[in-house]
Automatic annotation (TrEMBL):
MF term (GO), any: magnesium ion binding
Keywords: Transferase
Organism expressing this protein natively: Flavobacterium noncentrifugens
Protein name: Phosphopantetheinyl transferase
Superkingdom to which the source organism belongs: Bacteria
């Protein structure tokens, strides 16, 4: 079943998760793209990426939209023509879209041990409260990474640094939520973070408080 899960977070916010088990040819046949996105698709080298891109359009269909309702700004942030907010992610065989009345961000990441080698690049603050030797260090780091990607998708501003401006607050995996503070350009904003794991993937979504 390609539509893997719907999270009815609130009447105003829903998350759709797709497990991409259709072959590329099937998706290609089922999805109609506008001219701009047709060109983008044809420029994608990896079939996995193309399937991810098309599966997002399948999610749009589930919600009564099509590719013709979607535009991208100069930074690559997607917008729906009716003014509803959305945020998009795709990772290997999963894709997910969050729809909301407010500005939101989503990210999905495959859990990989190699994230531990990169911890100093994006989790300087979080390493003050994370335990490097804990069994769940990699899983927590994956959440932290996802939060920062999701914040980037919400704010869409040049100059935001994962280490210098985004601070994920301590959490335990079983809590499935935390807060994150963005301190950028003399503005301090707090966001609610929600996360869950599925089949060695981590889904994170972030909403302004
Ligand atoms: C844009 C970015 C957030 C995308 O994240 P990703 O994990 O590579 O890929 P995902 O599949 O999760 O997300 C891709 C989607 O994000 C959306 N997106 C791209 N740029 C965006 C932006 N500026 N704002 C909001 N959303 C954006 C798009 O919808 C895109 O999918 P689509 O083009 O197929 O529709 C990421 O590439 C990036 O630039 N991150 C910030 C870089 C950074 O500071 N890194 C620090 C390293 S230490």
């Amino acid at each position: 079943m390609p539509l893997y899960k719907i999270i009815n977070f609130s009447p105003k916010t829903q998350i759709y998760i797709w497990k991409i088990d259709e072959p590329y040819a099937q998706l290609r046949e089922e999805v109609q793209l506008n001219d701009r996105n047709e060109i983008r698709l044809n420029g994608m080298k990896s079939e996995l990426h193309r399937r991810g891109f098309l599966s997002v359009r399948k999610i749009l269909h589930e919600n009564g939209y099509s590719d013709f309702d979607l535009t991208y700004d100069a930074f690559g942030k997607p917008h729906l023509k009716d003014g509803k907010h959305l945020s998009i992610t795709h990772s290997h065989e999963f894709s997910a879209v969050i729809f909301s009345d407010q500005n939101i961000g989503i990210d999905m990441e495959k859990q990989r041990d190699k994230i531990k080698i990169l911890d100093y690049k994006f989790a300087e603050f979080e390493m003050t409260w994370l335990d490097k030797n804990a069994a769940d260090y990699m899983r927590k780091l994956t959440v932290v990474w996802g939060v920062k990607e999701a914040i980037f998708k919400i704010r869409n501003e040049v100059g935001i640094s994962f280490n210098d401006h985004i601070f994920v607050q301590p959490f335990e995996m079983q809590h499935l939520q935390t807060d994150v503070i963005l301190n950028f350009n003399e503005t301090r904003m707090t966001f609610s973070v929600y996360f869950e794991e599925m089949e060695n993937f981590t889904l994170v979504y972030v909403l302004e408080k």
